[in-house]
Amino acid sequence: MLKSHSCGELNKKNVGAKVTLAGWVDRRRDHGGLIFIDLRDREGIVQVVFNPETSEQCHQVASEMRSEYVVRVSGEVAPRPPGTENPKLATGDIEVIAQDTEILNPSKTPPFYISEDTEVEESLRLRYRYLDLRRTRMRENLLLRYKVVKFIRNFLDARGFIEIETPILIKSTPEGARDYLVPSRLYPGKFYALPQSPQQLKQLLMVAGMEKYYQIARCFRDEDTRADRQPEFTQLDLEMSFVEEEDILNLFEELFTTMVETIKPDWGLIKPFPRLTYAEAMERYGTDKPDLRFGLEIRDLTDIAAQSDFAVFRSALAGGGKVKGICAPGCAAYSRSQLDELNKLVQGLGAEGLVTMSLAASAGSLSNLTLEMVRSVAAKFLTLDQIKEIARCLGANVGDLLLIIAGKPELVDMALGELRREMGHRLKLDDPHLLAFAFIVNFPLLQRSKEGRRWEPMHHPFTAPRDEDVPLLDTAPEKVWAKHYDIICNGCEIAGGSLRIYTAELQRKIFRLLGYSDEEIKERFGHLLEAFDYGAPPHGGIAHGIDRMVMLLAGEETIREVIAFPKTQEAADLTFNAPSPVTEEQLAELHLRLREKR
Question: Of 429, 455, 487, which one is at a domain's C-terminal end?
Fold first, then answer.
């Protein structure tokens, strides 16, 4: 080894020891006679002192060092002089007096500061990702990711699970997103697909009798990216035989609880995990992945609105719509420009607009409120009693701001859900050091496609319906509930799974309901249906998004900050400049030819 110790491991116990260190120059300070170098490696930073009286040669070499030079230093660990200690560094009580040194590799001036946590344009960071990863925050994110994955493996190993790898090159099958296709050289005109998830593979492993399987799986989906989505991502993929829904939910509550308490012991954690039905989550929070760190629940005001003369309410109700709202506590003094911002937010989501009511704090209490103390375009169309009733329904008091939307039920719920998230952030109710997990259960099995012509699976086509609802598949598919469950945390879906269909007859019925012909079923899913005929056990599983979990634990806004080499929002790799053209020879080997786009 070119080094005897890591920079970050030295402390007072090492005083007097001879050490050899190697790393990068984080900072260099020339004080005339003495030169100080902050030397950095993966484990931390330590101060190295180059004194010409100790070694003229070392001092001369140090005078040539610059930021990000790779250097090697040998010397003696000494306590820092009193008053010069640095409490911000784990090694801040000591320094290394250099006795021998060499520059292993010089460095050009980096395109951004490595030693400072300054804002850098993301495309520049991704172009020079290998430099970005030297920064303290990014290094700590990758170390956190390593700890999370290591914890998962140890946890599952202790509970009898075995890790099994599954193929990356598989058959293209519909799983909810667009496949990445890989042309075959040996089979002209045929393609592999990169797995969207190992869904069918893990079910086949249950048929194979593995009983408890898991995998830290790479998954690929050709879909638009966003803050918590990438074309390629990593998930904990898990499947179990002879289980019920409670077994899987209890396992993952224990996994997440012990993970947080071990890795982030000083963070808050709500437990036991609350349980919400899908319908309840949509009704109260406008989304199936609500942020439960704060309240601001959505309330239905339709009955009150129906008694008013306000045209906005009456028009929405006449079209079969709803009127709902939330209360923003202490926001009655919001300015016109602030209210306009909120109005533009909901309009951008498709809502007609936002009705606001500011209840003046000067009233002292709701009972003392007068119409003159209400600031709203709707006030002159509502009676004082109706306004007070709306306020009570929303749990509001004087000094609060009421935010109301009227329109189609699905649109109202969605817009208020986003508005609720925005207000929770503005009011700083979304504590970044509190994790609010919850289970969402009782999902519909099916949903109508956007054009409304066919049924689509709410999750995927292998999810089992509730036993009591199976007869409804023939008469009322919209009333069938699924054995599906999600785990959410702080407004993110971090895991989703279900008990699976394990008989060929029921699976074939679902495929037909989704519009597949018998020929398509045989071509796309024949391997799975055939396996079910050889004694498939009852089984179920779940997939947990590791990128999203690490993002939450790192306090980041996007999963790109916890992935070593992520893609941009446009699915481009700026480090390797991918995707990129290939040669005509490569295309010819794959029996492909590109057509000019008209």
Answer: 429
